[in-house]
Prior knowledge:
29 helices, two-stranded antiparallel sheet, exocytosis, coiled coil, flat, mainly alpha
Amino acid sequence: MKAGGIDGVKSYRSEKMSNSGSTNAPPLILDIEDFKGDFSFDALFGNLVNELLPSFQEEDTDTMGHSKTGTNDVLPNGSLRTPSDAGKSAQGLSMPLFPEVDALSELFKVSCKELMELQTQIDARLNNVKKEVSVQDSKHRKTLAELEKGVDGLFDSFARLDSRISSVGQTAAKIGDHLQSADAQRETATQTIDLIKYLMEFNSSPGDLMELSPLFSDDSRVSEAASIAQKLRSFAEEDVGRQGLGVASTTGNATASRGLEVAVANLQDYCNELENRLLARFDAASQRRELSTMAECGKILSKFNRGSSAMQHYVATRPMFIDVEVMNADTRLVLGDQGSQVSPSNVARGLSSLYKEIIDTVRKESATIMAVFPSPNEVMAILVQRVLEQRVTALLDKLLQKPSLLNPPPMEEGGLLLYLRMLAVAYEKTQELARDLRTLGCGDLDVEGLTESLFSAHKEDYPEHEQASLGQLYKAKMEELRAEGQLSESSGTGTIGRSKGASLSSSHQQISVTVVTEFVRWNEEAISRCVLFSSQPSILASNVKAVFTCLLDQVSQYTTDGLERARDGLTEAAALRERFVLGTSVSRRVAVAAASAAEAAAAAGESSFRSFMVAVQRCASSVAIVQQYFANNISRLLLPVDGVHAASCEEMATAMSSAEAAAYKGLQQCIDTVMAEVERLLSVEQKSTDYRSPDDGIAPDHRQTNACTRVVAYLSRVLEAAFTALEGLNKQAFLTELGNRLHKLLLSHWQKYTFNPSGGLRLKRDITEYGEFVRSFNAPSVDEKFELLGIMANVFIVAPESLSTLFEGTPSIRKDAQRFIQLRDDYKSAKLAAKLSSLWPSSS
Length: 844
């Protein structure tokens, strides 16, 4: 409510409250304007009741001050009790609790009536406003309809105008095209007239170039003259060609044809003269380094055969192609002075320096070419091609002279290997040169393909040279080893006769793992060259397979020869043993000499045994080196091509089969050597009384016999080399065969002796000793046989009547046990034959 309206209500309320006791309240005066703006019902209500309820007027100011209202009490009707009210309540409750209620009720009734009247006024006003708004809305809609109609008309006018403008523009464009076409035709006609005039000048008389227009002799208009001359020449040659085709059907055009031929000839002469003049000017500008003049001449010369003559002329006149001293300097830089030894490392350094110089030169020429020629890429292609075909090829021809496979250079001069190393160095460095030239820019020239063509003659039969080189290296190495062997043999200290126990194989050179490693190193170098020269996987796999086969052949031959040499020692030792086998009827002196020689032969056999085991061990190490090399270096190069890897694996197995066969034969000879020495020791050391002690009252000796001790000591000593050299299945097979042979030899040996019970105990002690030793073989079948021997030895210990129960658990050895029983010293006296026949009838 507005402030003015609130003040009016207050003044009216004061007058009303002063007369409320005697008269009815007059109507309230409420103005509609009081309800506009920031109207507050609380303010209106407060102004109505403030005169009747003073405590309501003070409520806003007293509610926040508790110290001021602390003495007032709140009445049940919501009014505050003042101190005077408290006194009145102390006097009694004779007065009503809310005496202003009647005045308030009357006030509210009057206010409601006034408000209803105001509502009626407001409703009337609202109706009037709605009618006015409706009238204005109708007018507005009518105006909008008229505006929309006018806008549509305006758009139609714009559309017609746009269509008209477009039509006018198309007409203007057509007129412009016609004008442009007419102008072009006029220009073409003018040029044609000029060309015909110039053509008539050239067609005047053969060889006469003196009566030509000033255009063709003006140096300032050389470019224009060259362009016109080329057009005339093209037209004349084309016309001559057409006339020539028509000669076969008609002869009426002979005169015209001859006339144009004159023009063609004169134009050819003029173009040649002009081109030579421009080339001379170009050379002069090149000498003075006048790039602008060179560029101008190059641009004009590009109109003659697309400038090929200028390009070729520029490249051909470069100093590096015409200066002989440059070529000689190239040769000295790479090959050194005449007569000096050439090495791949020196050649590599020389090529690096030379190719760097070439790159620097081409880079400088590239800057000039970019500034002078309209088509620099074509000029660069010609320049790079000339560099590779002339300068690089001339050097490679001197550096790489393909040797003959039938008569290769000797190893003293480097052999085939020197040529291959030079080829690899030159190829690798030239490939780097090609890549650097490509970065400088050479148009559409196939630099890599051109570089490959420089080495095509060398790469055609490269694999054959690589294999021949490996063969030459192998042959030279074998000759070196033979020379070393002969030298060591000549400086030796003696033979078996002078040095007891010396090895018969001392003059035979042993297999060297170092040598095999050198074979692998040769092959690895050759494989690296295969990878360098072979870009296609199939070609690479084929070359690698061929080179690796060389290694297999070398290792196979070297190891097989080494094993065969070691076998020769075993064979010689066996021959010595046979030589000193004597009969029974010899003198004591001869027997002593023979025994001494037999010991020397035995020592030679033991030494040969050790030498062969060393050879087998080194052979196995060599094979392992080759297998590891194949897995690490060769396999990945063969796998991309189907079947090649499997074929190489099969070749590797085949190549090693010869060495395996030699090793197998040698191991059999080793077993024979060991068994021969065991047999000799048993025959020499075993006494007849070892197993049949005399009944002289002396306590029997239950220790192992001296023969057993010697045999076990010998086997322990000699087989130490076998345990070290062999491994895996080879070791198991060898020791199993040796154990079986030892078992058979002992059985045969003990058949020569007679046993009493004490001798049986000693035999059992020998068998136990042998069994303990062969247990180190880790051969279950051999262990079982010696355990059965121990059981059979019991036939010499038990009483005759206990023999029947001795083999109840092991009937398989009953037959061998019968042969043992026959060796008892009481076999005949105890009539054991009859008893055994009754016990084991099937055995009899």
